[in-house]
User: What shape does this take?
Amino acid sequence: MKSFSTRRLTYLAVLTAVALTIFVIEAQLPPLAPIPGIKLGLANVVTVYAVFALGPGQAGLVLLARILLGSLFAGGMTLFYSLAGGLCCYLVTLATWRLLGPRLVWACSMLGAMAHNVGQIAVAVAITRTPAVAAYLPILLVSGIVTGVFTGLCAQFLLSRLPRPGPPGRGGS
Amino acid sequence: MKHTKVWILVTVLLLAVCLAGWLLVLGGRAGSATAQIYQGGQLVRTIDLSQVEQPYSFSVDGPAGGNTIQVEQGRIRVSHAGCPDQVCVQQGWIANGVVPIVCLPNELVIQVGGDEAEGGLDGVSG
Assistant: This one.
């Protein structure tokens, strides 16, 4: 088990707190459309930022902590949708982030958002046991593409403005 | 920079395909106006909406407080839901097409049109 420096651990904790705060505030906003599953997903700015700034391993930790804590605040069935969507999004990001590189953060985020929608729908079909729910997929994908590009661009600007964090290993200042 | 242009193109293409899929779903098939109400994956009620003379409503139990469903000639909606988010209530009336009303907390799905046999939608979405 690789251990983090205190500095890095704090950095991850702060990122998680920022993501969680954005998530909780966004949950208080009225829904954008009368269709379940459509939202801006601003908390993903932090996730995408973390993948490119810290690598997928530590970004995965931040994402997992945010989903688990976030579902405590949101309650209900949210956990399953978030986990399935988050996992799909994470796997796609894992596969694409190196290929696309820092100039195409937004494209990576868009693909991840689309994977998130597919995961969400898969869980919705499983829970309701009704394949007709898949009819939502094109609608969700449209919203996923738009919001994915938006959050990706946010993360891309963040990456070019913020100084990179220190090395992940032991020690550090 | 070249890659950026390629990816902008890919994005626009994906968006176009999904919008086309969306329109396909919205356009749906006019089909018969039969509403099927599922709770927990079980078909609990089938209503031929064209045969409804007087508007009426009824309740369906569910794990999150159940739903009240209102029926009029040719259309159906959820008028009350026991869950906090009320997404199904806000969706309003549906009359035809493929987009169902879904109340996830109550595991309720209302589908209009198509046959009673499953796969009515799969034929459309391929």
Remarks:
- Confidence is low (pLDDT under 50) at residues 115-126 of chain B.
- The CA atoms of residues 119 and 125 of chain B lie 10 Å apart.
